[in-house]
Specification:
The complex is a heterodimer of chains A (373) and B (623).
Chain A lengths: L4 E5 L3 E7 L12 E7 L4 E7 L17 E8 L3 E6 L4 E6 L4 E7 L4 E8 L4 E2 L2 E2 L2 E7 L2 E6 L4 E5 L7 E3 L7 E8 L2 E6 L3 E6 L9 E4 L7 E6 L6 E6 L3 E6 L8 E4 L5 E6 L6 E6 L4 E6 L19 E3 L8 H8 L8 E5 L8 E7 L2 E6 L3 E5 L5
Antiparallel strand pairs in A: 1-31, 2-3, 3-4, 4-5, 6-7, 7-8, 8-9, 10-11, 12-13, 13-14, 14-15, 16-17, 17-18, 18-19, 20-21, 21-22, 22-23, 23-27, 24-25, 25-26, 26-28, 29-30, 30-31
Chain B lengths: L42 H20 L7 H32 L4 H22 L6 H12 L3 H11 L9 H10 L3 H14 L4 H12 L12 H20 L7 H10 L4 H6 L1 H4 L2 H12 L8 H12 L8 H10 L3 H12 L2 H13 L8 H20 L5 H9 L5 H9 L7 H13 L3 H17 L3 H11 L2 H18 L5 H4 L10 H17 L3 H13 L8 H13 L1 H14 L4 H12 L5 H15 L3 H4 L5
Helix pairs in contact in B: 1-2, 1-17, 2-3, 3-4, 3-15, 4-13, 5-6, 6-7, 6-10, 7-8, 9-10, 13-14, 14-15, 15-16, 16-17, 17-18, 18-19, 18-20, 19-20, 21-22, 22-23, 23-24, 24-26, 26-27, 27-28, 27-29
The chains are: A mainly beta (373), B mainly alpha (623).
């Protein structure tokens, strides 16, 4: 299973790796991904190809290593990277800049399409932009300055700024709904923002009771929009139901150091992936018979250590029953280490279809084309 | 202009070297000085792969269990050695492609070639420790691997129209024989034979002769002695052919015969150009005169071959001394010479570490052996640490230096620039995992100060919590309180309202949280609870002195609330151990010193009015 990973050393520490989205209409598989580097004097964004499937007679999974298509200089660390559309990516830089790059497929070149140079800043210094999320043409970014900024691609200025949205660093942002976003910060709070409102306050604040562990990543369940997963400094995976209560629904010990990214599989959300500073990449899989994945059922799981959170008041009856009865036969949660051996921090991962790509501080990229989902 | 981060301690052989400057453009040292432009230098990214891949192998090596018997470990060590070498080769091949474009990197390629050559020999002699019989076979492989031009030439010859007539044809055939590749030599000879049907018998005889040369099979049942006997027989046959002048009519075949005949030195030396190195000469000689050579006998042959090969004009190069030392099984000399000659910490550090794991250094002076490994690893890792990106690899190396690794790490880790929070978090994690509490505090303090300067109070608090730095938490709370005094409202309510258990980190922070709570209660008109809280804040003595005036002012409106004042008095008189007059006298005595004294005088009446009638409080009123 392990040797299905193709690994390539790329002479740069990879901070982010993202698959280019594939259109749902075509039966195309993931083939191109973008990466960003960090901690270099000259950082780069790069586009890679893993080759199209079925093009050679070679058995799947043993085809060649990722091939570099093109790359471009990037000012500052790439702290976040998202595809805006098929040809454009947006990056968040440690200089505070937000940049749109365009990948010209025909000539395999990259050009800067648009940039907001000091989007995030302090009065007398740069402030790193730590997260970006987009829903073309809208782009939302967050930073160490505690600002939330809304942009529109192809429009010069900013659409909206929420100054002092947070007194601590906002580490990540994601969409909850088309007009609502979620941010996580370094004092362990999950905040909901309704962008339709003019007020500069969050519509909801959720946090763990107990220690204020900084949260680093957040992802929303693709089908059930109220279910959100977060990960933070203590390596715990938390799953929240944002409709009810202000504390997580379930907590699971996952990693022994910071969890940098968490992703639900976009089309198969019974599968979840997390990566961490401890050098591991975990694949979480439920085999629950019910519609609800077992890690949403809270409580204890036979194969994983977990701490029960407080039961939510009211809410879905079957969920509560499953939890209260402590019936772990209702669902099994399995966790697998995906990477073959110890590596330095796995900073980023992305999964699309059966393909998974991740980047490490060991200056390597791993691609797996046969993720069992 | 080099970006010099660290200078090597060893004396360098040439003034143009900068022994060991680990600026990004100067990882391997070279003779000529030229301007290096950071990572844009082409070969730097290629070398980085070497550092990263070898780091992976290094870490894997350290985790091999110590308690396994050595016979199980040897194959593992050999395998690891081959892994290292394949990484070197991959790097070299990539560099070669670049070197074709830019001439100046040729030197880097030749350094790597030398490194791989030495490493390979060390693997054969020390790690694999092949005994007599296998030893020669390994040495043959070694020579073949490092003489790639034979295959190139052969390809050229074979691809030509008439290979047997190609001008390099005989060079290829003889080279094959010199390398003991008799099968390939015979295949080539067939082509010549078909061209010269008249001499068919002669070629057949040569073919038979070559096909019969015995090669020792380590896995077979034949003992070394049996092999030796067979080999001597074959030699007698070769000798007979020479005496009979069987090949006299063809000088090339005659040559081959002579070579095969106990590796005739003079004949071999006539073909220095084909051998090109003294160690090829050595191995060929051994192949034809003493294939059962024992490891302990090698040095004698090596020395004599070196002397014979180099004519009186040329001097041995550093590489030659290193190889000679290897043949003499003087491991320490090899390491020492490599350190000086190649000025390449990467190589000696990793090789020495591997040899140490094979327990090859400890047979010498025990203390010195283990220190040598650590010394080299420390030097290598220190160099890595100055690289803006590769410093993370260095941490693992320091981890496996039991004596001084930790000290080195403690010193170096504080110098890593913390440009972003993300980077600071990674550095912190390294420190926390190793219980380097002083460094944890120091890093958190730097980040907290920076956050404070940029008015990011929440971030500052987050860093204080991580370091459990009560003093800094106090500082942050003071900032909040100052802000409040200046503006009359709290900033960053999202933080103060959600302090949670962090509140307990420092008294001042607790006070801040509780004071905010007081305001919330007051705002919700829950006066009873508000006043109770205020009183406890006063009596608990966690309020900063500068704040006492504010507290008293806050208390005044509460005193007017009849229902509340009664409660305050009751609480003050019956609920506290500190008598209420003492509280007020304390507060008043301090307030007297402030400029707000006059304001309080006007409030005095109210206080007096309230407390008159309570005899034991009258003397509180100092006007």
């Amino acid at each position: 299973f392990f040797f299905r990973f193709a690994a390539v050393y790329v002479s740069q520490k990879i901070s982010k790796s993202r698959w280019r989205p594939v259109s749902h209409s075509s039966l195309q598989q993931a083939d191109i991904f973008a990466t960003g580097s960090w901690d270099n004097e000259d950082n780069k964004i790069s586009f890679w190809s893993i080759g199209s499937h079925g093009s050679s007679g070679v058995e799947d999974g043993f085809e060649g290593d990722p091939q570099l298509l093109c790359e471009h200089k990037h000012d500052g660390d790439v702290l976040d990277l998202q595809f805006l559309d098929q040809d454009r990516i947006v990056t968040a830089s440690s200089t505070g800049a937000v940049t749109i790059f365009r990948h010209h497929q025909n000539s395999q070149t990259i050009s800067v399409s648009q940039q907001w140079a000091r989007a995030h800043r302090y009065p007398s210094d740069n402030a790193p932009c730590t997260g970006v999320v987009c829903s073309s043409p809208e782009i939302v970014t967050v930073g160490e300055d505690g600002r939330i900024i809304v942009f529109r691609a192809d429009q010069e200025g900013v659409i909206r700024v929420i100054d002092n949205a947070d007194s601590s660093t906002i580490h990540a942002v994601t969409y909850l709904r088309t007009t609502e976003i979620l941010t996580v910060n370094s004092i362990g709070q999950l905040k909901l923002w309704d962008l339709r409102q003019q007020s500069n306050s969050p519509s909801q604040i959720l946090s763990l009771s107990g220690d204020r562990v900084p949260l680093h990543c957040v992802d929303r369940h693709p089908n059930q929009q109220h279910i959100v997963a977060t990960g933070g400094q203590d390596g715990m995976l938390c799953v929240w139901d944002v409709r009810q209560g202000s504390t997580p629904f379930s907590l699971m010990e996952a990693h022994s150091a910071e969890m940098w990214e968490v992703h639900f599989h976009p089309t198969n959300p019974d599968h979840l992936f997390t990566c961490s500073e401890d050098g591991s990449l975990l694949h979480w899989e439920t085999s629950s018979q019910s519609d609800i994945p077992s890690f949403l059922q809270g409580g204890r799981n036979s194969s994983m250590t977990s701490r029960s959170a407080m039961a939510p008041a009211g809410g879905n009856q079957s969920l509560i029953n499953a939890w209260l009865s402590g019936d772990s036969s209702k669902g099994r949660l399995e966790t697998t280490h995906m990477l073959p051996s110890q590596t330095l921090s796995v900073n980023s991962l992305d999964v699309l279809g059966q393909c998974l790509v991740c980047g490490t501080d060991g200056e390597a990229i791993f691609v797996n084309r046969q993720v069992p989902v | 202009i080099f970006k010099i981060n660290k200078v090597c301690l060893l004396k360098t052989s040439s003034g143009t070297h900068l022994g060991f400057a680990w600026g990004p453009g100067d990882i391997l040292v070279y003779e000529t000085l030229y301007k290096v432009r950071k990572d844009e230098d082409i070969y730097s990214p290629i070398l980085r792969k070497l550092f990263n891949e070898s780091h992976h192998i290094f870490v894997g090596l350290q985790t091999i269990r110590e308690d396994l018997p050595s016979k199980n470990k040897k194959p593992q060590f050999v395998s690891i050695s081959k892994n290292y070498r394949s990484v070197i080769r991959a790097c070299m091949e990539e560099l070669q492609q670049v070197a074709e474009v830019a001439m100046q990197y040729g030197n880097q390629v030749s350094i790597l070639l030398a490194i791989e050559l030495i490493w390979n020999l060390c693997e054969v002699l020390f790690i694999d420790a092949a005994p007599a019989g296998s030893l020669l076979l390994h040495l043959l492989d070694w020579v073949r691997l490092h003489k790639a031009d034979v295959d190139e030439k052969a390809r050229e010859v074979l691809q030509s129209e008439s290979p047997a007539e190609h001008r390099d044809y005989w060079d290829v055939v003889v080279s094959y024989v010199l390398q003991g590749r008799l099968e390939e030599a015979r295949q080539m000879l067939v082509k010549q034979a078909t061209l010269q049907p008249a001499a068919r018998k002669m070629y057949k005889q040569m073919d038979t002769l070559l096909s019969k040369m015995p090669f020792y099979n380590p896995g077979g049942t034949q003992t070394l002695t049996e092999f030796d006997v067979k080999w001597r027989h074959w030699h007698e046959e070769v000798d007979r052919c020479l005496q009979d002048n069987s090949f006299a009519s063809n000088k090339h075949l005659e040559l081959i015969c002579k070579v095969s005949d106990l590796g005739d030195e003079d004949t071999l030396l006539e073909h220095k150009d084909l051998l090109s190195t003294w160690y090829h000469f050595l191995v060929t000689r051994l192949l034809f005169c003493h294939p059962t050579v024992k490891p302990t006998e090698l040095h004698y042959y090596a020395q004599s071959c070196l002397t014979m090969f180099l004519d009186s004009r040329s001097v041995p190069e550093p590489l030659d001394s290193i190889l000679l030392a290897a043949f003499e099984f003087d491991i320490h000399q090899v390491i020492k010479d490599c350190s000086i000659a190649l000025n390449n910490w990467w190589f000696v550090a990793h090789l020495t570490d591997l040899l140490d794991h094979c327990k090859l250094l400890q047979s010498h002076n025990l203390h010195f052996g283990s220190n040598l490994r650590e010394f080299l690893l420390l030097e290598y890792a220190s160099g890595l640490f100055t690289h803006h990106s590769l410093w993370q690899l260095a941490v693992d190396y320091f981890d496996h230096c039991p004596e001084f690794g930790r000290v080195y790490l403690e010193l170096q880790i504080e110098r890593v620039p913390l440009d972003t929070e993300r980077k600071a978090l990674k550095v912190l994690r390294i420190c926390e995992q190793r219980q380097m509490s002083e460094q944890v505090r120091s890093i958190c303090k730097i980040m907290a100060m920076r956050a404070l300067r940029n008015n990011r109070l929440g971030s500052a608090l987050s860093w204080s919590i991580r370091a459990k730095d009560a003093a800094f938490a106090t500082l942050i709370s003071e900032r909040f309180l100052q802000d409040y005094c200046a503006r009359g409202t709290f900033s960053d309510l999202d933080l103060i309202d959600n302090l949670g258990p962090a509140m307990l980190l420092s008294d001042r922070l607790t006070f801040l949280g509780k004071y905010r709570e007081f305001h919330k209660l007051y705002g919700e008109k829950r006066f009873r609870e508000a006043s109770k809280l205020l009183l406890s804040l006063m009596t608990a003595k966690i309020a900063p002195r500068s704040f006492w005036m504010t507290l008293l002012t806050d208390a005044l409106p509460l005193l007017e609330q009849k229902e509340v004042s009664h409660h305050i008095v009751r609480y003050a008189v019956y609920g506290q151990s500190t008598p209420p007059q003492k509280i007020f006298s304390l507060l008043l005595s301090n307030i007297k010193k402030t400029s707000k004294y006059s304001y309080l005088r006007s409030c005095n009446q109210r206080i007096f009015g309230f407390f008159s009638g309570k005899n034991n409080i009258k003397d509180v009123l100092i006007i």
